[in-house]
Amino acid sequence: MKEHLYALGVTCIQHIQYWCSDYAPFLEQVNNFYNPNNVLDILFPVISFVDSVFASQLLLVTSFGGWLNCILKWWFLEDRPYWWIQETNYYIGSERPKLLQTSQTCETGPGNPSGHTATAASVLVLAIMWISHIFNDRKWKTSLWKYAVYPLFGSLLISVMLARMFIGTHFPHQCIVGAIIGAFLAPALCIYISDPYIWQYGSYLKYSPKQSIKFHMTCAVTAIAMCLVTYHTLLLSGIDPDYTVRLAFRWCDNPDDIHVSTTPMFAMVQCTGAMLGWSMFVTPAVSRFRHDTYKRSFIVSAVSTILITYGLHCAEAAIPDENITTFYTLNFIINIIKPLLYLRVLPELSMLPFKDKPQNFIN
Question: Which residues, including other chains, have CB under 8 Å from residue 308's CB and lie 6 or more apart?
Fold first, then answer.
């Protein structure tokens, strides 16, 4: 059954690569923009400059979604199109189909679900929630914006799915699963976790911020433990969780296009570090720095964001990769401190020029 599903997916990919060949540069940019790494390294700092609450929501959804994506990839252990067509026995007795490979094709983890599609769905749903919140804050009682935003965001999500299939790194059903997961996670985590915690209502009224921090840290540590248990359970079952990396090196037309950031272990380190950092440093205090916070310095905020981002980029580039344990440990630590720098230090710096004056908020 799975082989037939894969074969049908390959046929769809061949048609997409034929029909969309003229739009290859655009699809490449779409792939880059919704890369989960770029969301954490670029989009998150930019959003933190505008609104710490929205940035904290983005970080929670992206990091938890990335962790869930890695766990599900290890559970499903599905192939990617560009290596499946070479490994399968489905085409014995007939000519194997040929798929176009680009510099973005050679990702190394299992294929299901699509992390890019899940990230895109999460970001787009979060953006809709943020726009709706701004309209409610400003008392703008109109729904006309939905007629423009909904079709636009729907088109963007479809373009991400097409982009992932165009480069031959996902089957159609993997993109659909990713979109469903991402669209569900964003409102669920905001409605039940981040919003009640930051604005102190619902179940979080029963606990002090310190108790909530301990609870969130316990959840983050549990998530890390689940990663280790899943990884070692596969090993004990005789399954190498990293076998897909070898398949990528075997069938990638240009092995130089393979990057460590596409491995499941790197994604797991990045996402669990960000989750732990969120649990430690995101508190109701982040609500002080929002899109409608009046007394803050945009110049200080912009300069601080640039300097912090540049400093973190240099620190990540300086991590030695000779020792894999050291490499992953240092990356884990850097991702822990990112929420501290962007959600706590940056707001304090931007409001520093007004520290001797009362804080005013536009409601």
Answer: 45, 341, 342, 345, 346
pLDDT exceeds cutoff 80 at 147 = yes
- Options 4, 15, 133, 170, the catalytic residue: 170
Q: Is the pLDDT of residue 61 over 80?
A: yes
- Judge whether 116 counts as a catalytic residue: yes
What does pTM read for this prediction? Answer: 0.91
Is residue 55 within 8 Å of 350, Cβ to Cβ?
no
Convert the pLDDT of each residue in 29-38 to its tens digit.
999 989 988 9
Give me the phi and psi of 21, to 5 degrees please: -60, -30
- Please enumerate, by residue number, every residue annotated as part of a binding site for substrate: 80, 164
Question: For the chain, what is the radius of gyration of the CA atoms?
Answer: 22
- Enter the tokens of residue 100: 């176009």
For 345-360, write each residue's pLDDT tens digit. 998 888 887 776 554 4
Residues 72, 81: Cα–Cα separation, whole Å = 18
DSSP string, 34-49: T-HHHIIIIIHHHHHH
Catalytic residue, candidates 116, 232, 291, 313:
116
Structure tokens at 121: 């769905």
Number of Cβ atoms within 10 Å of the Cβ of 149: 15
Annotated binding-site members: 80, 164
User: What's the token pair of residue 197?
Assistant: 């915690």
Of residues 358 and 91, more confidently modeled: 91
34 within 8 A of 65, measured Cβ to Cβ = no
Q: Please, are residues 175 and 121 in contact by the beta-carbon 8 Å criterion? A: no
Quick check: helix, strand or coil at residue 293? strand
